[in-house]
Amino acid sequence: MVEEGVLMVREFDPEKDCLGVEDVERRCEVGPSGKMSLFTDLLGDPVCRIRHSPTFLMLVAETGDEKEIVGLIRGCIKTVTCGKKLSRNGKNTNDLSKPLPVYTKVAYILGLRVSPSHRRMGIGLKLVSRMEKWFSENGAEYSYIATDNDNQASVKLFTDRCGYAKFRTPSILVQPVFAHRVNVPKRVTILRLAPSDAETLYRRRFSTTEFFPRDIDTVLNNKLNLGTYIAVPAGTYCNESWPGVDKFLSDSPESWAVLSVWNSKAVFMLEVRGASPLRRGLAKITRIVDRAFPWLRIPSVPEVFRPFGLHFLYGLGGDGPQSVRLMKALCGFAHNMAKESGCGVVATEVSSHEPLRLGIPHWKRLSCDEDLWCMKRLGEDYSDGSVGDWTKSPPGLTIFVDPREF
């Protein structure tokens, strides 16, 4: 353990800490020997991944005399749906059966880093404890983290030493952006919704989904949001005949699907390192052939061995017997948007039980079947309300992944 007084945990100072933080990030992102690894470039803004959250904080761990930054942690707080209850204010039996969201204040930890030269000294535990103290002071009832299921050091720290429990295992699905455009079937019509229509649709159809953010309007109106798109069978609507979201919801077509697109490329860049010359060469050949003969629609490997950006798809949903097919068309449309923006991949994260998952194109090699989420209740002096202890609740079919935290 670090001796008292030797280590100081304090709030990140952007005026003097950027270089030290970048050095820790660089030293921590050393992949396994002989294997490919994913590196993240935060574009000179260490708080970029939490900056758009309602409340956020970044802490650094600094050695006493040398003033060397040896660890860091980021955290944010928001209000989300943790369950649902039946309305008791309705005037008829239909209203009485309408589910309403139950909200809670939840905190999210991401980007915990400890310099390799200072590990096994209790620094990670101290950073987590200090961040949790700030969470509690700001009214958060729960704290959760997302980590790779194979990262045993991280899993053990949170589950064995910090009191977190394994909670959810959503899947990260990643699709490369090819050199050719993806065909969107002509029998599908895709419409862009105004932010106000998108907000109404999400609140009325998805507000009881686990982790749905109560400030969805802030998300949809953020400059990083590239739009919300809805797919319906051709002939149902066009831009001129769109009836508005209220009429759509009161008389929905038999099948439809929806998703929103977030421009993560403006926040951070990614890079795959550790690939062999042979792997790089084969990937380059696929891109050359794809560009030369786009009509062949070869599934080419994008240039991921240099910094590349991504678009994140969130708020995926839909209904009806054709919803999977419509979701696939939406993902193709999103792929073409990403191609025009120069992105390397399109990514999303969904529940492992998500019914629409079959309509989301992805490469297994680039994806993660189980992104482990661990959760902890920060105190016992909260009302159990309609949900009880959220950490003990069973998973639902769907989950809402906030793009501000991906």
From TrEMBL:
Please give one Gene Ontology molecular function term for this protein: acyltransferase activity, transferring groups other than amino-acyl groups
Q: What Pfam families has UniProt attached to this entry?
A: Acetyltransf_1
Q: Which residues form the N-acetyltransferase domain?
A: 7-185
Q: Which SUPFAM superfamilies match?
A: Acyl-CoA N-acyltransferases (Nat)
Sorted alphabetically, the keyword list is: Acyltransferase, Transferase
**Which InterPro entries does this chain map to?**
Acyl_CoA_acyltransferase, GNAT_dom, Plant_NAT
Specify the superkingdom. Eukaryota
* Family per similarity comment: Belongs to the acetyltransferase family.
Q: What is this protein called?
A: N-acetyltransferase domain-containing protein
- The species this protein belongs to is Tetracentron sinense (Spur-leaf)
